[in-house]
Amino acid sequence: MVRAPCCDKMGLKKGPWTPEEDQILVSFIHKHGHDNWRALPKQAGLLRCGKSCRLRWINYLRPDIKRGNFTLEEEDTIIQLHEMLGNRWSAIAAKLPGRTDNEIKNVWHTHLKKRLSQHQTKPDTNKKNSKTKNKTKSKPSVVSLSSDEFPSSSTEVSSITDTTDHSGVDNIKAENIVDSWECFPEIDESFGSDNSSTPPLNSDKYQPQVPLFSIDGVTGAHQNIDDDSMEFWYELFINAGGEGNFIAQF
DNA sequence: AAGTCTGTCAACCGCCGGCTG
DNA sequence: TCAGCCGGCGGTTGACAGACT
């Protein structure tokens, strides 16, 4: 028997997700949940198949995703669990709250396998990751604004707004943003599920690879943050009611 | 400075198993 | 019991960016 394709491929988009698609997906799930992945894209107005939506949510947009480099402890845990469980990435991920099976699988193939073989040949030493891409090169910056503080479309927020263009949120520049970790307990709280094992966000080991956002009731992460993305998340914030705090971490 | 190599990771593909009618 | 649907999982790919020559 030939199985029908998971979805009708005709007219469905593939490839990287755009911020607009992310916004639609997050907003929809925030409002309606995700009882039926196959029906979700149609209901949400997305030209994606259900699987793609599910994957995007699970691996990237889910609020309780822990972003950032893996700590040594996490890596050791993965190695131990892999010895016990083999390539059962989802089972391993279940033991590492906030980490996805996809992420763990990637780390295993790109980093840990190598690390293990190095251990076997020459004990320890050189983490010769001269080529290791580290997307987080510096301590992230933080925006923390209440809805009252956030600029309206034509208002500028003095402490965080670049004044070269006065079109509102487009103007937020990372270099002007408060460089502080103090706001992060708010992110922890909003992340909700199982925070107990989340390493302190002000830990040196916690280096987010992509910006994180915590908007009261809506939380997310975004790669390649730029001003447009910031606007995207702010609009999401407003759509969600615009109450509470809008926080962005770069 | 330009071209090439290499590592990383988001996303896709196809299979599997559970559930339901 | 069986066929079909659906979500979940693991393997794989390809684009991209940084490192190297």
TrEMBL record:
UniProt KW keywords: DNA-binding, Nucleus, Transcription, Transcription regulation
For whether the record's keyword set contains Zinc, the answer is no
Sorted alphabetically, which Pfam families does this protein's record hold? Myb_DNA-binding (PF00249)
Please list the residue ranges annotated as the HTH myb-type domain: 9-61, 62-116
SUPFAM superfamilies this protein is in? Homeodomain-like (SSF46689)
Q: Name the segments for region: Disordered.
A: 114-168
Instruction: Output the Gene Ontology terms for molecular function.
Output: DNA binding
InterPro entries in the record, alphabetically? Homeodomain-like_sf (IPR009057), Myb_dom (IPR017930), Myb_TF_plants (IPR015495), SANT/Myb (IPR001005)
Instruction: Name its cellular compartments.
Output: Nucleus
Q: Which GO terms describe its cellular component?
A: nucleus
Biased composition annotated in UniProt, kind: Polar residues: 143-162
- Ranges of Basic residues compositional bias? 128-138
Report the residue ranges that make up the Myb-like domain in this protein. Answer: 9-61, 62-112
PANTHER family recorded for this chain?
MYB FAMILY TRANSCRIPTION FACTOR (PTHR10641), TRANSCRIPTION FACTOR MYB15 (PTHR10641:SF1406)
Q: Kindly provide the name given to this protein in its UniProt entry.
A: MYB DOMAIN PROTEIN 15, myb domain protein 15
